[in-house]
Design a protein that fits this description.
Distance between the termini: 120 Å
Structural class: mainly alpha
Helix content: 40-55%
Order of helices and strands: HHHHHHHHHHHHHHHHHHHHH
Number of domains: 3
Length: about 425
């Protein structure tokens, strides 16, 4: 998107689309901005009429200049202004719904005309803003779409052709975003398409042809998987049938080429859909597969074939009863599966027997007193050094063991003097 100066903005039409045509009577309902009728909806053309200036003048009569100016904000640098414009337009739609509910009886024609004009203006905006590559702008655009197609907003025009006809101007963008690499954009786009399919004023028949269109980039795994997931959800909810726009031949024509895609995820999703639709009419489905994509049929039959009995022989169950987990070779359970020391089982049984007999284990050994501590206590009391000298005399005479025994018993002073005098 670019700025107002070159007039190519959010309402610029796609290069692949041409402006629709309409009768002369529709120009009055859309305002006097155009000399020539341009169709049921005002969609800005890339070249020719209607121009960006014509579209802006048309929208200003419906939603005011402020919203139009914000929607025309420049590119990705000012996307917050586009968000503000979308939020303002959404609030305007909600306000019109509230005013319509409070409108006195007998004024329904006025409400219908105003609602139809606002609906057309919103479609003009949605046809371009849903192409915005900035996800924070794309998500508010989906919120506007949800409001425009709500039951309250569509009530005055639900029985007319406008809601269904408008889908052609933005459905292709929703389908394309359903294959986006952005998870939020992909999920919200798929959800919006499902809501349109559930809407009574639109129906699944108006959405399915867009979903079954060929992928613009068949090599993109995101695009293929996203589209296949969307198709699977629609098939699961609405089923096959011409009324839903889901003929078996059209579905297979879209899905079968993707069964041979490079992406494993795309192949699995495509094969899953083929197997689902095949279950509805096997003979007709296989005949169509043979005619449309014969190379896929052997792969499908291989998936549907029962498993080989020989390959499962090694998985057969014997009649031998296995010992319980943690059991030893004798069948008795051990205390631990791995790393149990030898003799543990015997010791455990001995402890159990002793407990049953009321016996107690042997008394624990008394801790030996630290000799060094005892000696230090004696020496600390030896103020004159006599005890230390006596100990040295005893050691020097080879009576170290006797001395140790004496000190172990903590001898008195009298006993120590007797020991000293006995030394010759």
């Amino acid at each position: 998107m670019v700025g107002v100066g070159d007039r190519a903005g959010v309402h610029s039409a796609s290069q692949q689309r041409t402006p629709p045509t309409m009768g002369k009577g529709a120009a009055t309902a859309m305002g006097a901005a155009f000399k020539e009728p341009i169709g049921e909806f005002t969609i800005e053309a890339a070249s020719g009429a209607p121009t960006a200036a014509d579209v802006d003048a048309y929208l200003e009569d419906i939603m005011g200049p402020r919203i139009v100016k914000e929607l025309r904000a420049d590119g990705s640098k000012d996307w917050s202004s586009r968000v503000s414009g979308l939020e303002g337009l959404t609030k305007l739609c909600q306000k019109k719904v509230a005013e319509g509910m409070a409108m006195p009886t007998g004024r329904s024609d006025v409400v219908d005309a105003e609602r139809a004009a606002l609906f057309r203006g919103c479609v003009t905006v949605l046809s371009r803003v849903l192409q915005d590559k900035v996800v924070p702008v794309f998500l508010p655009a989906l919120a506007l779409l949800a409001e425009v197609y709500s039951d309250g907003f569509l009530k005055p025009i639900a029985k007319g052709p406008l809601p269904r006809a408008a889908v052609a101007h933005f459905a292709h963008q929703l389908v394309w975003r359903a294959g986006s690499s952005n998870v939020r954009a992909r999920e919200e786009s798929s959800s919006a398409l499902l809501k349109l399919a559930r809407c009574e004023a639109v129906g699944c028949g108006a959405i399915s042809p867009w979903v079954l269109r060929p992928l613009s980039n068949s090599k993109s795994a995101h695009a293929a998987i996203g589209r296949l997931e969307l198709l699977r959800m629609i098939l699961s909810e609405f089923g096959l049938g011409s009324a839903n726009g889901l003929e078996l031949r059209e579905v297979l024509a879209f899905v079968l080429p993707l069964c041979e895609a490079a992406s494993q995820g795309a192949r699995d999703a495509a094969v899953g859909i083929v197997l689902d639709v095949r279950s509805s009419d096997e003979k007709r489905a296989e005949a169509l597969i043979e005619a449309l994509r014969p190379s896929v049929l052997p792969m499908l039959k291989a998936r549907l074939a029962p498993p080989d009995a020989k390959s499962l022989a090694s998985l057969s169950i014997s009649g031998r009863r296995l010992p319980p987990i943690g059991a030893g070779d004798t069948g008795d359970e051990v205390l631990a599966f791995n790393g149990t020391p030898p003799g543990t089982e015997v010791k455990a049984k001995a402890r159990l027997t002793a407990a049953e007999l009321g016996a107690r284990g042997p008394p624990t050994a008394r801790k030996k007193t630290i000799k060094a501590a005892a000696k230090a206590a004696i020496i600390d009391d030896d103020e004159d050094g006599l005890l230390r000298e006596a100990e040295m005399i005893v050691r020097s005479n080879g009576n170290e063991s006797s001395g140790h025994l004496r000190f172990d018993k903590e001898p008195t002073d009298e006993e120590l003097m007797a020991e000293i005098l006995s030394v010759k």
